[in-house]
Specification:
With 188 residues, the chain is of the alpha/beta class. Helices cover 38% and strands 22% of the residues. The protein has helices spanning 16-26, 56-64, 84-90, 104-110, 123-133, 138-147, 167-182; strands at 5-10, 33-35, 38-40, 52-53, 68-74, 77-82, 94-98, 115-120, 159-162. The strands form two sheets. The protein has a five-stranded parallel beta sheet, with helices on both faces. A hairpin with a 2-residue loop joins strand 5 and strand 6.
Length: 188
């Protein structure tokens, strides 16, 4: 089976980073799979995902040099996925990335083998997670919740993972989804 770009998307606070960390731990020994890190203009200690922190100037310099396979702006930050993903895919390695819902159409144009994975969570759970995370104030949290579209699972392409409950259950669902779409043997 051909290598895939597994493009994980969902609202900020939906648990994408936690699910991906769970899957990364479960799939760490598979040489046909890589979890790509993101380059972000956000402090390294801001909480959440393990990312490469860049200043706005560093990010723009790398963008102009063509060092990002994918890049976008969201919530006052710049996000990028390095061109190393192209080498991994060319070697037949499936790559999992934390993407952007707004950038999905552009990413799918660049990577026809892209598999969107939508992480969905109820508004109540999302509010609690955003409050616990502590990166946004109450007004910013409410603005994020207002942006959160109602579930549109039936009209989306790709796969959907519900992440309202126990992390292990949704994390294992992501592991199995990655295995199924990249031709890896299942071993739950």
């Amino acid at each position: 089976m051909k290598a895939r770009l597994v493009y994980v998307v969902g609202a900020s606070g939906s648990g994408k980073d936690s699910l991906m960390a769970h899957a990364r731990g479960r799939l760490a020994n598979d040489i046909r799979l890589v979890f790509a890190h993101r380059y972000i203009t956000r402090a390294a200690d801001a909480g959440g995902e393990n990312h490469v922190a860049l200043t706005a100037e560093e990010f723009e310099s790398r963008r102009q040099a063509g060092l990002f396979a994918l890049h976008w702006q969201s919530h006052g930050h710049a996000y990028g996925i390095g061109i190393e993903v192209n080498q991994w895919l060319a070697k037949g390695i499936t790559v999992v990335v934390n993407g952007s819902r707004e950038y999905l159409v552009e990413a799918a144009k660049r990577y026809p083998e892209l598999l969107p994975v939508w992480v969905e969570v109820s508004p109540e759970v999302l509010r609690k997670r955003l409050q616990a995370r502590g990166r946004e104030n109450a007004q910013e949290i409410e603005a994020r919740l207002a942006r959160q579209p109602a579930s549109q699972s039936s009209s989306r392409t790709g796969e959907v993972i519900r992440n309202d409950g126990e992390l292990r259950m949704a994390g294992d669902a992501l592991v199995e989804l990655i295995r199924r779409h990249s031709g890896m043997a299942s071993c739950v």
